[in-house]
Design goal:
There is one protein chain. This protein has 241 residues and is an all-alpha fold. The chain has one domain. Helix 8 runs parallel beside helix 13 and helix 11 packs antiparallel against helix 12.
Length: 241
């Protein structure tokens, strides 16, 4: 479920998708996207090898990741922004998100977050650790899915992906995922920068998650995607110098 949902890699579909399977998929999201992390790292490496401008290398790497994940999280970010920006009650805001078409708020948010991601990765490339930053951002960005699905986080709707995964991950498991990601990042970047990068990504996702719980009543599939993208932006910003 993790590989099939988060990447374009063809895998057999799970025979049953229940809360146990869904929770396990959220926990296993970081290793499931290792192929995407590898693609991003290789593109940055090749860009450096042939002398591409850092901004171009960053845009190509993040574009490849978006293509390899079907633009799933970017779509979620835009829909979440439209829902949060709508001056309606909770039910109307959720309906705006369900429609799937992006309004001005969603489009502006999408453009701004992508600019931050590309600019920050370009900064990391210029600083000499763009390969590591790209890989960490892809993996740690998906790591926040276990945080968003931790016990105690409600679903905004009674149906859909959010309802299946909400509260399906034990808190200690989500904490363990964070610890592993922070430790891995500290090994491939200067330890303080690796730790800071993962913390920054988690803080960015936590801020959006808290706002969505307050405004929408919980998580949806779109909210999960939005949290992934802001986490990637946070990781890259902390890695950009």
């Amino acid at each position: 479920m993790a590989v099939g949902t988060l990447t374009t890699v063809r895998v057999p579909a799970p025979r049953v998708i229940d809360r146990r399977v869904a929770g396990g998929a959220m926990v296993l999201a970081p290793p499931a996207v290792l192929p995407l992390a590898a693609v991003a790292a290789v593109i940055v490496y090749l860009g450096e090898l042939i002398g591409l401008p850092s901004f171009a290398s960053a845009a190509l790497a993040l574009g490849a990741v978006a293509l390899g994940s079907r633009g799933l999280h970017l779509d979620g970010l835009a829909d979440t922004a439209d829902g949060l920006g709508a001056s309606y009650d909770r039910a109307r805001a959720l309906e705006v998100m369900r429609r799937g078409d992006s309004g001005p708020t969603g489009i502006a948010t999408l453009v701004l977050v992508l600019l931050v991601q590309v600019g920050a990765l370009a900064g990391a490339i210029t600083a000499g650790h763009g390969i590591a930053a790209a890989a960490i951002a892809v993996v740690a960005g998906r790591g926040v899915l276990s945080l968003c699905c931790a016990r105690g986080v409600p679903s905004a709707r009674p149906e859909g992906l959010g309802a299946t995964v909400a509260g399906s991950v034990p808190v200690w498991t989500a904490a363990a995922v964070f610890a592993v990601l922070a430790g891995a990042a500290a090994l491939v970047l200067p330890w303080w920068q690796g730790l800071t990068a993962v913390v920054a990504g988690y803080l960015a996702a936590s801020a959006l998650l808290a706002r969505c719980v307050q405004r929408l009543g919980g998580v949806t599939g779109d909210v999960l995607g939005g949290c992934v993208e802001v986490a990637v932006a946070g990781v890259l910003l902390a890695s950009s110098f």
